[in-house]
Amino acid sequence: MRDVLIVVYDGIQILDAAGPLEVLHGAGYHVRLASPDGKDVTTASGVRLGVHCALDVEPPDTLLVAGGWTYHSADPVLVEGIRHLAAGARRVTSVCTGAFLLASAGLLDGRRATTHWAFASELATTHPSVTVVPDAIFVRDDPVVTAAGVTAGVDLALALVEEDEGAGMAREIAKWLVVFLQRPGGQSQFSVHNRTPPVQDSALRRLLEHIAANPGADLSVSAMADWLSMSPRHFSRMFTAQVGCSPGRYVERARVEAARLLLENGDECVEVVARLSGFGTPETMRRAFLRELGVPPSAYRSRFRTTARQV
Question: Exposed, middle or buried, 122 (CB in 10 Å: 0-12/13-18/19+)?
């Protein structure tokens, strides 16, 4: 029986712990919850969780650190306990903002990792030695595996079961819990994907607003360069330096964002959505969706339309 220790603390997201626990318990693992002092903890939603032990126990086979809203003010005892347990564990994992605790313990230095999309840039900024992969559902950099936000802990746990016990066991657990064994797409399908850092140039800010408001307009490099009275070459260099990606990539992301909203909230056919969002043809839009979100427009619509429309 494999031993798993889930690290919890006041302010954790209950699903960050409960999701992996259900998967691993269902697969026959011995799962315990551990807090810094061994006392019960209160989750962010106010639910009290019973705890089995403190962090001063023998290292487990697998250590899993749950995420929570108090990650930015972590107790040094918590961080040191994680560091101690990780030193003797075969495998170290985290869910959501639990990655910040692993990083604070020095366990992600020089490694690739992920966290919830909303906190990915913060993790990259506060821990520059970590290579943050913002779109991944989970990232494996053996012996450390980090997962994205909340329900991604289920994806992570299923991957651990598959690694330990084979795909058959993982598939049976996934069926029982009515979830994907391997979720299609990455985190981009759940986030506002065309977020950009603040730009200094006021004219460029107006151009970005124009792109968001008019995705079907002529947004070629030459047209946007004319907007700012620049040569296309100078415009491309300036845009990439301030926005962090090329003009063409940014426009594609903005158009995917516009198409997403139309697919989620409207009844227009795919052909109309492609035209209104500036892609022109459904095939062009499909290729962009696969690049940016990992799923085609039809699959995105079926997954993210409101429940009222699906009933």
Answer: middle
In whole angstroms, give the CA distance from residue 30 to residue 11: 24
254 alpha carbon, distance to own chain's centre: 19
Q: Which two tokens stand for residue 204?
A: 């460029």
Tell me how far apart the alpha carbons of residues 19 and 272 are, in angstroms, rounded to a whole number: 39
Quote the radius of gyration of the chain (alpha carbons, Å).
22
Identify which of 57, 64, 77, 67 has the alpha carbon closest to the alpha carbon of residue 31. Answer: 64
238 and 247 in contact (C-beta within 8 Å)?
A: no
Bond before 143 cis per omega within 30 degrees: yes
- The number of angstroms, rounded, from the C-alpha of 242 to the middle of its chain's C-alpha atoms is 24
Taking the C-alpha atoms of residue 52 and residue 302, their distance in angstroms, rounded to an integer, is 42
Nearest to 294 by CA among 213, 215, 182: 182
Tell me the per-residue pLDDT of 65-94, one tens digit each, with 9 for 90 and over: 999 998 887 789 999 999 999 999 999 999
* Pairing outcome for strands 48-49 and 53-54: unpaired
Please, are residues 58 and 77 in contact by the beta-carbon 8 Å criterion?
Answer: no
Question: Which residues, other chains included, contact 162 with Cβ-Cβ below 8 Å and sequence gap of 6+?
Answer: 169, 170, 181
Extract the tokens encoding 240. Answer: 């990439």
Catalytic site residue 53? no
Task: Report pLDDT digits (tens) over 14-64.
Answer: 999 999 999 999 999 999 999 999 999 999 999 999 999 999 999 999 999
Q: CA 232, CA 36: separation in Å to the nearest integer?
A: 57
Each residue's pLDDT tens digit, 102-139: 999 999 999 999 999 889 989 999 999 999 998 888 99
